[in-house]
Amino acid sequence: MAIDPTGAQLKQLLAEDDGEPVVMLNLLRFAPDGGRARYAEYARHLSETFLPRYGGEVLYAGSGSSPLVAEDGQAWDAVVLVRYPDRQSFSRMVADPEYQQVTHLRTEALTEAVLQATRPW
To answer: Which residues are in the DUF1330 domain (predicted)?
Structure first.
């Protein structure tokens, strides 16, 4: 299952950069063996160090519940919305060598994820 963006996916993200703010939608499915705790540790690093450094902010973070309308397998453990000033800011963050030292926490925490750039209507 997909968890981390590939280089090609990051390249596509930047190709669509219009310089406007972007909200990254995160749909998360935690590993059963401590995934939620590892993700909480990753989120702490993100909030304390990297989001302030790159101008990002968490708009919403919450636990999922039973879906009202969804196909089998479309329920998620958590939803997180993170706003960045632009796609370049997100790209610079994930390329930051210090960020690279903690991103393994996110990878280890998840069994599946959706990470999708969105923009206001």
So the answer is: 36-112
CA dihedral 69, 70, 75, 79 (to 10 degrees): -70
Predicted structure pTM score: 0.90
Helices 7-15 and 87-95 sit at what angle, rounded to 10 degrees?
150
* H or E element at residue 82: strand 78-84
- 73-90 pLDDT, tens digit each: 788 999 999 999 999 999
Residue 22 sits in which domain range?
A: 7-118
In a domain, 1, yes or no: no
For tokens 């702490």, the residue is 44
